[in-house]
Amino acid sequence: MFMNEQHDRIPTNMRMIVILETLAQAGRPLSVAEIGEVVDLPKPTLHRLCTTLEEDGFLIRDSIGGRLRPARRVRVLASGLLMASQLHIARRMVMTALAGEIRETCNFSVPGASGMTYLDRVDTPWPLRYQLPIGAEVPFHCTASGKMYLSSYDDAALDRMLATMTLTQEGPNAITNKDALLKEILKVREAGHSWDNEEFMTGMIAMAAPVYDPDGRFAATIAFHAPVQRLDFEAAKAWVPRLKKATADLEALMFGDDQIT
Predict the structure, then answer these.
(1) pLDDT tens across 212-247, in order?
(2) What is the CA angle 152-82-71, rounded to 5?
């Protein structure tokens, strides 16, 4: 991280990168003033750079408070760099092993602007499958990965988040009442894993577990989904310990002292 005493020596062509790095390390949306507390640049310069990053699609204003956070172009860039590294191979190994045991489709997803974005997938060998393309964004409120992400918010932030959400009726069991969804998210938080019981799609169930960064912040999920004709909801629960082992293995590979780079 760039320290304050270094900021007067930040090369012009590095200043936008330092702003993005500051947001990444904060792990939450920041105002321009908050960015300025770390990136010691003149206020007019900082405002101009942030405006440019916003106009070019690298930053976006948060719906709560108007603070800046990474937008789609940053997420695509980050995932592309991740995919290009050896870490992608390690992640695929973890997911392939999990999918090979469960024999159902496994996916890796991260929070997007309005839902969870699928970054990677290992398909089931069965011809009957639900297949979501890489890059697809699915709702927070009715997917296992989305509810897992929502559970990472503290109580006050979760209340604010739910207040801004539109709870659409996707699958037959989707929760469209905000009070009921809050109760569901609290159950997910307590359980340490999440589920989708035909909430996103008719005939599909899913389970998800979180991947945390070294500071204990939510980073991503690994999940599996399956048609109920082959794996019903109760049977899927039996695979949760194996799913959590996969996330622990991935955390060790991504963030451990012996992480692959």
Answers:
(1) 988 888 989 999 999 999 999 999 999 999 999 999
(2) 55
Extract the runs of DSSP E, i.e. beta strands, from 87-191: 105-111, 116-122, 137-138
Predicted TM-score (pTM) of this structure: 0.70
Query: Residues 115, 125, 236, 82: is their CA dihedral positive or negative?
Result: negative
Q: Phi and psi dihedrals of 231, rounded to 5?
A: -140, 105
Return the residue matching tokens 């709870």: 167
Q: Domains along the chain?
A: 4-70 (1.10.10.10), 74-255 (3.30.450.40)
- The first and second tokens of residue 102, run together, are 């469960």
Q: Which helix (H) or strand (E) holds 27?
A: none
Helix (H), strand (E) at residue 59: strand 59-61
Q: How many Å apart are CA 36 and CA 10, to the nearest integer?
A: 14
